[in-house]
Inverse folding.
């Protein structure tokens, strides 16, 4: 998994600093998470292949998370995309997109499938051979989901010497890597456990924006390889965070600590602050392995 940060800021973008958008690459597929205003320029700037975007996930209906969506969808059509594109978003965003398509009489070159989300519980919303997407219901001023993306379990690794000792035909190798036993030519059952070892660990990424501190998501995100949690405010503005349903540096640090995640990425910084280093220093007080969002930063998960 590879993550590229397209936007690091909160609601008000700055020159060359955009609102929330991430691209997660799993194998050769791209998952676009939130669509800030100007997202298509950021995708081009960081050389993300538009044609490899398989799904788009939108957290909520605040503009800093989806104002770039219609521009991108239209451009993909003008570029004559022919692959199906699926969007998962709150029903409110779905209605806005449908209204835009209707009143602008847009005819896309590709099949656009809009999936409206409204559940308050964590749900598996998409699965393909390489990854699974699950929602993370968050606590914001309007209906909001974060997203947990997990690689599918990796295939088991063959123990070639053991397979040769047992004189097992290569046609069975694939079955063993999938964790299946095989009956050999002599009618004996060969257990996959005897001829394979565990595959590599599957990686996971949790994206949580926007939210106030939310104890109920801890079980869903526990132990992920990378957690993104918004930190709109520094600790001295905790009252502001509370009234707008956002997180502070301390909230994000404690969430990461309690969820026992491996690494924490913070972002969605309020435009009132000039020095984002302060976010890093404050968050570190509660969780050591922390990174700051910056446009163009690439993270290998
Ligand atoms: Zn926001
Ligand atoms: Zn918001």
């Amino acid at each position: 998994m590879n993550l590229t940060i397209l936007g690091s800021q909160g609601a008000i973008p700055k020159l060359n600093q955009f609102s929330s958008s991430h691209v997660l690459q799993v194998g050769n597929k791209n998952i676009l998470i939130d669509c800030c205003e100007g997202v298509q320029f950021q995708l081009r700037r960081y050389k993300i292949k538009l044609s490899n975007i398989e799904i788009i996930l939108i957290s909520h209906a605040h503009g800093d998370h989806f104002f770039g969506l219609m521009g991108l969808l239209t451009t993909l059509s003008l570029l004559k995309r022919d692959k199906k594109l699926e969007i998962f978003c709150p029903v409110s965003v779905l209605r806005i997109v449908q209204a835009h398509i209707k009143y602008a009489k847009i005819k896309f070159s590709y099949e656009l499938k809009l999936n409206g989300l409204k559940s308050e519980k964590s749900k598996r919303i998409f699965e393909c051979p390489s990854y699974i997407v699950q929602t993370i219901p968050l606590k914001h001023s309007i209906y909001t989901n974060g997203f947990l993306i997990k690689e599918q379990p990796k295939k088991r690794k063959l123990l070639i010497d053991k397979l040769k000792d047992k004189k097992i035909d290569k046609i069975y190798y694939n079955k063993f890597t999938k964790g299946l036993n095989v009956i050999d030519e002599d009618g004996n059952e060969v257990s996959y456990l005897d001829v394979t070892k565990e595959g590599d660990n599957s990686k996971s990424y949790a994206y949580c924006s926007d939210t106030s501190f939310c104890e109920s998501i801890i079980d869903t995100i526990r132990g992920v390889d990378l957690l993104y949690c918004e930190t709109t405010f520094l600790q001295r503005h905790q009252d502001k965070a509370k009234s707008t349903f956002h997180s502070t540096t301390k909230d994000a640090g404690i969430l990461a600590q309690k969820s026992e995640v491996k690494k924490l990425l913070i972002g969605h910084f309020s435009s009132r602050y000039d020095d984002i280093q302060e976010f890093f220093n404050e968050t570190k007080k509660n969780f050591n392995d922390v990174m700051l969002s910056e446009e163009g930063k690439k993270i290998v998960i």
Q: What stands out?
A: The CA atoms of residues 218 and 259 lie 5 Å apart.
